[in-house]
Design goal:
Elements lengths: L15 H11 L12 E6 L4 E5 L12 H11 L5 E7 L10 H8 L7 E6 L2 E7 H4 L6 H5 L4
Parallel strand pairs: 3-4
Antiparallel strand pairs: 1-2, 1-3, 4-5
The structure holds zinc ion.
């Protein structure tokens, strides 16, 4: 089955709780090297919000993105599906999930899942996962099995 971007994301005013959670997490980010502080918040299928910040490391490649931390928190919290996710960066440049995180999100979300890009002034843009990661490789790809 081919995946398509589904309906447009919900209006940003419905996602202010995610913005609040991501902003709070961002304030606690550990980014002493880049000073590029990022927070992410997930609304899971149960309604629980999971938030995390980026965590850098003196061995640079070992650092982790805020989205990865939020996904780990969601899994540890017993949830398995992302209903909506928001990433908050410093602005003014739009901060969307990096390529690796788009794939991480895909594992627990569908093409229509809303992804919001925010900065301290609020939500600046909203996308669907299908828009940010078209023709995605995902769990359903493996379910099809070998030819
Ligand atoms: Zn990332």
């Amino acid at each position: 089955m081919q995946e398509h971007a589904e309906s447009a994301p919900p209006p940003p005013e419905d996602s202010l709780d995610l913005l609040q959670a991501a902003t709070a997490a961002r304030a606690r980010a550990y980014a002493p090297y880049s000073r590029f502080f990022v927070g992410a918040a997930i609304r899971s299928e149960s309604g629980t919000i999971y938030a995390a910040a980026n965590v850098e490391n003196a061995a640079y490649p070992v650092g982790t993105c805020a989205e990865a931390g939020a996904i780990a928190a969601m899994i540890a919290g017993g949830d398995r599906r992302i209903v909506e996710i928001l990433v908050c960066g410093p602005g003014p440049a739009l901060v969307t999930p990096c390529g690796a995180c788009r794939q991480r999100i895909r594992e627990f979300a569908s093409a229509g899942t809303p992804i919001h890009a925010a900065d301290p002034d609020g939500i600046q843009a909203s996308f669907t996962l299908g828009e940010l990661l078209p023709m995605a490789f995902g769990p359903d790809t493996l379910e099809r099995g070998p030819p």
